[in-house]
Design goal:
The chain has five helices and eight strands; from the N terminus they run E-E-E-H-H-E-E-H-H-H-E-E-E. The chain is of the alpha+beta class and 260 residues long. It has two domains: 45-193, no CATH class; 210-260, no CATH class.
């Protein structure tokens, strides 16, 4: 467009472009604590696991289902995505306990997961005790059996192990930092598959195969691949005795120990 100059030109300057407006900074929103109003419609990725434990009523096997979904958030002004558990399902009819209480507990745990505090909720279930003796469920990182204060505690521990293998918790049941969850989910998406995060390659069962040096444990050594060496029978319930922390302890879970 032509512009008519009606006065004397005394100087000139180059017109500068207007600076671009800065992009708005997104407020931080931790994806670990973002509240999910309800279970979303459609299909969710899930882990189904069979849990085996031994208590006062003998050996039991139950099944547990945990569903996961990606959750968005904002960290340092950048949008990020992590994977969170959002639903826990325990089919009724597996235990002699009241089904309504089992259902209520799983619904409460699902609400805690969608509310962003499932780690604390599962840790709290680990503290539940009963008067029927210890419950044996699972193996620790050293290949020794893990004893729990109740069936509820044993199932809660099993839930923690599912979340650990999924990369959501560490091996001790503590919350993994959100930055690591973001990186882990990004790696999974980059691979283009639904492979679970890498866990320890050495399984606890390997610890069960350690050689027993005492001649008195020859009978247990023959059956070592099936569990710890048996050194006798419990005077209370006639269950199998094993050496635990240097002390004969009832393997059946009644709680008897020679050391008191």
């Amino acid at each position: 467009m032509a512009v008519e100059i009606t006065s004397k030109i005394v100087g000139y300057r180059i017109k500068q472009d207007e600076p671009a407006a800065p992009e708005p900074v997104l407020p931080d929103e931790n994806p670990l604590t973002v509240r999910i109003p309800s279970r979303p419609e459609g299909t969710l990725e899930a882990v189904s696991e069979k849990i085996s434990y031994v208590g006062a009523e003998g050996r039991k096997k139950v099944y547990l289902l945990v569903s996961f979904m990606p959750v968005e958030g904002v960290i340092g002004g950048k949008r990020v995505v992590i994977e969170r558990p959002v639903e826990f399902f325990f089919p009724s009819g597996q235990l002699s306990s009241e089904h309504q209480w089992i259902t209520a507990t799983m619904r409460s745990l699902s609400l805690a997961a969608r509310g962003g505090y499932v780690t604390q909720a599962v840790a709290d279930l680990r503290k539940v005790a009963w008067d029927k003796g210890l419950v044996r469920c699972g193996w620790n990182r050293y290949g020794k059996p893990v004893f729990h204060d109740s069936e509820v505690s044993a199932i809660a521990w099993s839930i923690q192990q599912i979340l650990y293998r999924r990369g959501f918790l560490d091996q001790d049941g503590n919350q993994v930092p959100v930055e690591e969850l973001v990186e882990g989910y990004a790696r999974r998406m980059a691979r283009g598959d639904d492979a679970q995060p890498e866990a320890d390659t050495e399984t606890p069962e390997a610890g069960k195969l350690e050689a027993v040096g005492d001649a008195d444990n020859e009978a247990g050594q023959a059956n070592q691949s099936a569990g710890p060496a048996v050194i006798g029978h419990c005077p209370e319930c006639r269950g199998e005795l094993i050496m635990m922390d240097g002390c004969p302890t009832c393997y059946a879970g009644c709680g008897w120990s020679k050391c008191g």
